[in-house]
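Chains adopt folds. We examine one example:
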Amino acid sequence: MKFNQETLAMKKLHFIFIMSVLVWGCDKSEQYAVTARIDGVEWISKGAVPAILTANGLLINASNPTQSPIAISIDDLVYNVIGSHPIDSTNNAFLYGSSITTGYFAKPSNPGALNITEVDASEKRVKGTFELMTYSLAGDSVHVTDGTFNIVYQN
């Protein structure tokens, strides 16, 4: 079976979705935030923001009771890399929605921007920003701007 970038991106998004189901059950006493503008509409996480660091990177899951959830996978955090990185579902991934089939994600052909601004391994804390155009399988698009995250992770 031949894999192209889109196929690999979809496999990664399936992994993110499965991990997000597992991580959503985690509870953190401190509340950290994920914020963004989705097509110009303010999006702010509500409640705890579960995040887990694995050998494959950091997975962040943020929810909002009146809007679709956001999941972000940061591969570059494995290497503790502060700076700018692409979000294209091959290197780092983003999912806006409750499932891959109905959600919006970054495409390798139009990468977004992820900027990791702070990593504190001793406190297990990560801060950063993101911006990208996301696409559904149906071909619709959603512009994500002014994205920020300030989270504490588990490993």
In short: The chain is about 10% helix and 45% strand. Residues 5-152 form one domain. Confidence is low (pLDDT under 50) at residues 19-31.
